[in-house]
Prior knowledge:
Blueprint: H1 3-8, H2 17-25, H3 30-48, E1 53-57, H4 65-70, E2 75-80, H5 83-99, E3 106-111, E4 126-132, H6 142-155, E5 156-167, H7 169-176, E6 181-183, E7 187-191, E8 202-207, E9 225-228, H8 232-241, E10 244-246, E11 277-279, H9 294-311, E12 314-321, H10 323-334, H11 337-344
Parallel strand pairs: 1-2, 1-4, 2-3, 4-5
Antiparallel strand pairs: 5-12, 6-7, 7-8, 8-9, 10-12, 11-12
Bound molecules: S-adenosylmethionine (SAM).
Residues 3, 7, 58-60, 63, 80-82, 85, 115-116, 132-134, 137, 211-212 line the site of S-adenosylmethionine.
Amino acid sequence: MDAKSHYVHQAHHGRTYQEAHKSRQEAVTKPLREYHNDVKNRLIHRFSREVEDHLDLACGRGGDAWKWVGARIHHVLGVDIAPSLLDDARERIDIIRQKKPDHDLTAEFMESDALGKHDIEWGQTFDTVSCMFAAHYLFESKESANQFFENAAAALKEGGYFYGTTICAKRVLALLGKEKEYRNSVLLIKALWDQPSKFGSGYTFALANTVTNHSDEADDVEGGATEYLTFFSVFTKLAERHGLYPVRDLNWSFGRNKRSRRDTLFEREPADHQEAFRYFQPQFCAHPNSQEQGDAAEADNGLLSDLEKASRLYAAFVFQKDTSRMKRSASDDGQPVAQRAKLNA
Ligand SMILES: C[S@@+](CC[C@H](N)C(=O)[O-])C[C@H]1O[C@@H](n2cnc3c(N)ncnc32)[C@H](O)[C@@H]1O
């Protein structure tokens, strides 16, 4: 199922947003959701703290709205392809306004299917741009991926950060091995390609109790939206073509802070040798007060290890806009080879 049809059907079936939220909180994938929220929260706090204008691409239900408030962002524009999710996002902002009337966040939400199709007239530039758990939908074709980076880069101020989270093609392929399908207790991946390639290699992906599943409240895994293999080397090359570069010497240590007990969020080394990416490093352990033993404890451990496998498919990325570097490398590329060879001699 394409991403738009899938996410349009992700409305909360007439229940209030609070009811849907409660059910998800109780869900089996809670540790994964908490860890993924921690990752997003720390990225937002690190890169968008107190910024004036932030753009969130593929914002979904605005699940990061409280994080924006916490980071004291002044204004956020959220863009998504699915109108029903944007209604939820607006409702969430209204609830925040009631609960915390003194915060100064303003947010607008825009429905658009143009992200991978044509230039979006932003009408302004943003200090930071994020894209959480969604860039992999844009790798449907080379054109769509290129357009995605064009739109992200055009929206960003010079020196601004483009950051987010996405899923790694190489890890998906490793999990599948020689098979066309991978299934564990929380995750279902079905390859739709004959031969995997840089663009347009679709697979259905469903993670229990998340919006990727056929019902985001279901414990069983079924269906799922079509995502596309996203190779980090290809991602980096396209990003650079649009003036977005990995940040040199970025401190990727996201150690403990007052809200998080985790020692480290990410693997130390660049993911797939790409400097702008770091793999998630979740450590889901059994609850220390759990009285369960024997079969129940074993089932818990099996589930936690399945959750870890799902989470370790993901990485965070951070790029920074540097148009002058892009112009320099474009003019280098434009040099006749002989002349460049002379210059390099
Ligand atoms: C897994 S959800 C992530 C939502 C949100 N960023 C978060 O982290 O909670 C993926 C989102 O990508 C959106 N999406 C998929 N393809 C899109 C496109 N071409 N343009 C805009 N949004 C898209 C879906 O509608 C959905 O809301």
